[in-house]
Amino acid sequence: MHPEVFQFHFLGQQRIFYSYGLMLILAGCCGTLMMAYLARRSGADAWDAIYVALLAIVGGLVGALGLDVLVNYRLYWQQPQFPGMVFFGGLMGGAAASLAFIRHFRLPLRVLMDAAAPALALGHAVGRVGCFLGGCCYGQVTKHPWAVVYNDMRAPATALSQGLEGLHPVQLYEASGLLAICIGLLVCGRLSRLKGSIFAIYLLAYAGLRLFTETLRADPERGRWLMFSTSQWIAISAVCAGLLLLWWNSGTRKRLDPPSAGGIREG
């Protein structure tokens, strides 16, 4: 674990530049640049993609913080503190802000959604490395040889490991899965019949990954409703949303694609 990058003196106090913050900045930069490149390759304007990505980052931060407060409102009412961030809240907040911008300026929705999916997976993977370095979003106790022991008191995971027990590096599990999803989406984006459906495939793939990694998480800020955590319920909803997007894209393609000479519509 390496929670800080460096320390510096500013306004009369010693400040710390944390690894988590650095990885969030890198995540935003990597995701934005990839989305701009993919959008331009598909014929959209790169600057439009950058504006959408930046707005998604702002909306994502609001959504990520807001969902954590909503799930753990009793804790924050009793002990006021700066809230954490929940990815699914960020996904919903970012999507809402982006869609509003896209609809207002009549930008190519499906092209930008296709460009956003692998960029989002890449940025999320980088962000999960930040979670690993900062000791948040940690896993359960395990005896596996690759288990990680946290002993820095600034890391929330230290409360469980106490510097003695190893934990599942679930953050790295998810980062690896997200990187694989990113590569898979880039391959899918090359296939003409899948254009317009890349974001739906992303939702289905990440929901499956998250349903798995949630079973290994041990941080208490999960929120539980019946037998599942809040994120598991949202992942199930993401599966439904992904299937609906696939159905919607299939329907729009049939309406918009011209019939071929043999009477068969081409994708």
Q: Mind explaining what this structure looks like?
A:
Strand 1 (4-10) and strand 2 (13-18) form a beta hairpin. The longest helix is centred in the C-terminal third of the chain and has 27 residues, at 230-256. Residues 256-267 have low confidence and may be disordered. The strands form two sheets. This protein has a two-stranded antiparallel sheet with strand order 1-2. It is 63% helix and 6% strand. With 267 residues, the chain is mainly α. The protein contains nine helices and four strands; from the N terminus they run E-E-H-H-H-H-H-H-H-H-E-E-H. It has one domain. Helix 2 runs antiparallel to helix 4 (87-105) and helix 5 (109-134) packs antiparallel against helix 7. It has helices spanning 19-41, 46-71, 73-78, 87-105, 109-134, 158-161, 170-189, 198-214, 230-256; strands at residues 4-10, 13-18, 224-225, 228-229.
Strand numbers in spatial order across the main sheet:
1-2
Number of helices: 9
Q: Can you write the helix and strand succession as a string?
A: EEHHHHHHHHEEH
Helix proportion range? 55-70%
Sequence stretches where pLDDT stays below 50 over 5 or more residues: 256-267
The count of strands amounts to 4
Rg from Cα: 20 Å
